[in-house]
Amino acid sequence: MGIFQTAAAAHRHLHRHTLPIPRWLIHLGVPGVFVVSVIDASVIPLPLPGSTDLLVLLLAARQSVSWLLVLAAVSGSVLGGYLTWSAGKRGGEAMLERYVPKRFRDPLSKWVKRHSVTSVATAAILPPPIPLLPFLLAAGALGVSRKQFIWSFSIARAARYGLIAWVGATYGRRVLRLWAQYLAGWADVILWVFLGLLIAAIVFGVWKYRHDQRHARVPVSAS
Predict the structure, then answer these.
(1) How many Å apart are CA 40 and CA 51, to the nearest integer?
(2) What's the CA gap between 190 and 54, in Å, rounded?
(3) 159, 74 in Cβ contact below 8 A?
């Protein structure tokens, strides 16, 4: 019995020392990682680039089940990325004209045409500030096949989020100390600002997508 009591006491001690993470973040858990990762890879801009990475890191640091976090992040990201790829495939190069600045459009198109699978995997594995959206739209618009896209994107995302979860699980106490030292007192403010910006980004993204779809359907009158 003494061994079990000691183990239980150690678990309670560890739990108390992992509470600097705000409770709203803990409650998000695996479903929250999935939802945020879907949005993160979609045409809707998140207010904080790398939000999925941050959630996986902090939740893995809290001794959550790392493989479930990775599974949620990868599956959500693949779903969001596939929707973005599909939008690029349906809209063609006109989607690139709407969402990609002109100075980046030609180099991006050349890179994707020359290195189709590699371009998708590279964009998926590199962290912010590398933008993901232009590469996914270009992959759909410029002919990267569905099979190639899903496999390359999935493998790259699994490597990225697997590494982040490992870092969180391995160096979790240090991560939590940094959070407690610099950000714990701002937890509620961060929550409401993030949620507000997220809702605004979703509304703007839906509005822009519908606006672009209506604009694309308007026939150009002959002069």
Answers:
(1) 7
(2) 13
(3) no
